[in-house]
Amino acid sequence: MNIYVGNLVYEVTDGELEAAFAPYGQIVSARVISDKFTGRSRGFGFVEMANNPEGEAAIKGLNGKDMKGRPLTVNEARPREERTGGGMGGGMGDGGRKGAGSRW
To answer: 5 near 24, Cβ under 8 Å?
Structure first.
């Protein structure tokens, strides 16, 4: 089961996140998400538990619990939404100029 963990203080490490979930069962992975440009924590992470009953117990046990002065937000992670690429958005395909046909 993949679990979202939010409202983390920026100093929390992967190891500390794993340690918080360890009493609830076997952990496959624990990762604090960091900004790809600055390397600083983004304040959330994901923990993958070996099975659903253990994951559900961790969610019940840790949601709202204090970790380093902040109440955790813990719930089942939603599947990642596909991003449609492009970046430039819709556009006219002609550089945005009106009447982009031949000038003469």
So the answer is: no
CATH code, 14: 3.30.70.330
- pLDDT score, position 53: 97
d(CA 39, CA 52): 31
Rg (CA), the chain: 21
Sign for the CA dihedral angle at 64, 81, 34, 16 comes to positive
What's the angle, vertex CA 78, arms to CA 50 and CA 52, rounded to 5? 25
Q: Can you list the residues of the chain whose pLDDT is less than 50?
A: none
Please tell me the total count of domains within the chain.
1
pLDDT of residue 35: 96
The closest alpha carbon to 21, from 44, 55, 53, belongs to 55
| Structural domain range at position 23 | 2-70
Question: What mean pLDDT value characterizes the chain?
Answer: 88
